[in-house]
Amino acid sequence: MTPSLITANALLEGDVIYLTAQGSWARTIADAEVFTDEAVAEERLFSVNPSEAVGAYLMPVSLTDGAPAPLHFREAFRATGPSNRFHGKQSEAF
Amino acid sequence: MYQYADFDRAFIAARNAQFRAQVARRISGELSEDEFKPLRLMNGVYLQLHAYMLRVAIPYGTLNSAQMGVLADLAETYDKGYGHFTTRQNIQYNWPKLGDIPDMLDDLARVGLHAIQTSGNTIRNVTADHFAGAAADELADPRPIAELIRQWSTDHPEFQFLPRKFKVAVTGSPNDRAVTAAHDIGLRIVARDGALGYQVLVGGGLGRTPMIGKVIKDFLPEADLLPYLEAVVSVWNTLGRRDNKYKARIKITVHEHGLAEISRLVEERFALIRPTFSGVDQTLLADIRAQFAPPAFRAAPLVAYDAAYAADPVFRAWADTNLARHKRADHAIVTISLKAHGETPGDATVAQMRLLADLAARFGYDALRISHEQNVILPHVARADLPTLHAALKAQGLATANIGLLSDIIACPGMDYCALATARSIPVAQDLAQHFDALKLEHDIGPLKLKISGCINACGHHHVGHIGILGLDRAGVENYQITLGGDHGTDLALGGRTGPGFSYDEIVPAIERILRCYLALRESREETFREAFHRLGLAPFKAALYEPPAPAKELIHAAE
Questions:
Q1: Short-list B150, B142, B155, CA closest to B167
Q2: Which contacts (CB < 8 Å, 24+ apart) does range B209-213 have?
Q3: Residue B259 above 80 pLDDT?
Q4: Reading across the β-sheet that carries B62-63, which strands appear in turn?
Q5: Residue B366 Cα, gap to closest chain A Cα (Å)
Q6: Residue pLDDT, tens place only, A80-89
Q7: Chain A partners of B34 at a C-beta cutoff of 8 Å?
């Protein structure tokens, strides 16, 4: 499969989150667990706790030296924030 | 304007308390997202790309200064210092947290505002001419009937789970500024034999299958309006396609069954339910109408206005573009542009909203309007006060003189915010405005409606722009289709596609080619882009768009 990670929106804040290898949710894509095995990815997606995350799905990424980056421009905007204002992830320090 | 009665206040308070409990149950995990989603949508709460979004209704676009003040307070307290006025006369907050939304709704309720039925498959916020009650060309103020429709449709038990959303727009002027023919139902106030009534259009809409509304009733007496509307919605509620959301809107129902059959079914239903309307609605309407009585206009000499117009070219340029004819000669309708070159169309900061509230209170009989074109209107300002008003607007970056010109662009939030979007629209609008401002071509080009949507749902009304731009995702890359020849006025027209789309980097130069073609081919400065397009047709613009002139080097070589 294309390397993928699991992303969703946080229930309380509504912002973009990524599932980590520890099973917690991170605010940055760099902390996400990358899946290359479809069965493992689907199993992890199925076990996402719906009380923390809304609308979880698998998101394909490219890997450069092991670091994931969005393949689609929609995910690039989700990972950074809007392009008309310096708001969202691009303005926040994690 | 309409003042909430005890009934309205109690209704909103009860609804807000109900939603507060629903949010608490969602946060505690008692409600799943599948269970919560329809509940939050009924209360204007979306989950977008980066955050939740709260859409607040501004019924028929009418606000007073206290309400605008609270909209500013919400932007400051719960959001990031601004709000976004939409193409349906609503305001959207892009960054609220779920737990804060019940408090936001309570703050809104204190000034008679709410977010009910701003989303979901219900009858949505009723929109109206933004110059209502002020325009010189108006037959009657459309807002009283819009308010009556709001009261009738809010929480209407039969219409809470419609096949899809349902939008109603009303105009009281023969010059349609409310795009009524692009609505599920469009109402136009008309006169016949000395009485006012309604021409009813049905089945209009933009989106993936754009259609122009068809006249289903040429003249409907006022007392028949609510039962007739109820009959139309009820027929559609029965026939509307629930198997396919893309075929669920009434435009498809009318298209599939034919106007004659829909009309027959509506008349049948109308005959059945008309007797159940006892006349209470007409009593209510009379009460509502009394609340929309015009303000006590003060007579004001024009000396100060005339002097500023003669002496200050900046004021003059603004007055020439941003003022419209008021029914009184000593007053004007002021459109305040939320389209400063390079800014996001429709965005207003906290400071700007507070200034607008203050100016409405000082100079505008406490009245404000939001237009579907994403601007703010002070509908009644004495011309004598305009120089002072203009100076105050200038200080907050609100005096851009571009109404009706190229940079007065409608643009949906697009992929910068919207979860449905397939491409960005805001930066395209920003780039176009800055590009033509730098070229100093905007005033030379003259009246132009440029409208941009970031997906096929067409919130940016691109089909009815003189130039429309539709942003799509083509194999993972933003691609922009151009339509030409649309118009949003009384004789609504849908634009036609020029051909293949353009990439994000190509779209501004492409629009420039179209407009340079217009400048080269127009008969005079008086011939607008729209008129020139009608005279010339698509061909020369298509050629300019897809067959750029040969590079200069080749021309020189050919000359040799």
A1: B150
A2: B209/B246, B209/B249, B209/B251, B209/B252, B210/B182, B210/B458, B210/B463, B210/B494, B211/B251, B211/B254, B211/B255, B212/B181, B212/B182, B212/B492, B212/B493, B212/B494, B213/B180, B213/B181, B213/B182, B213/B183, B213/B185, B213/B186, B213/B492
A3: yes
A4: B62-63, B368-370, B376-382, B331-336, B323-325
A5: 31
A6: 999 999 999 9
A7: none
Chain A, nearest residue to B99 by Cα: A12
Closest residue by Cα to residue A92 from A26, A34, A33: A26
CB contact under 8 A, A55 and B51: no
Measured between CA atoms, the residue of chain A closest to residue B414 is A82
Record the tokens describing residue B322, joined without a space: 């941003």
* CA-wise closest residue to B141 among B91, B104, B178, B112: B178
What value does the mean pLDDT of chain B take? 96
B449 near B463, Cβ under 8 Å? no
Q: Give residue for tokens 């353009």.
A: B502
Residue of A nearest to B79 (CA): A87
Q: Both tokens of residue A2?
A: 């294309």
Question: Please, are residues B368 and B378 in contact by the beta-carbon 8 Å criterion?
Answer: yes
Contacts of A55 in chain B (CB under 8 A): 33, 47
pTM for this prediction:
0.95
Residue from B282, B206, B224 nearest B488 by CA: B206
Asked if the interface predicted TM-score (ipTM) of this complex is over 0.90, the answer is yes
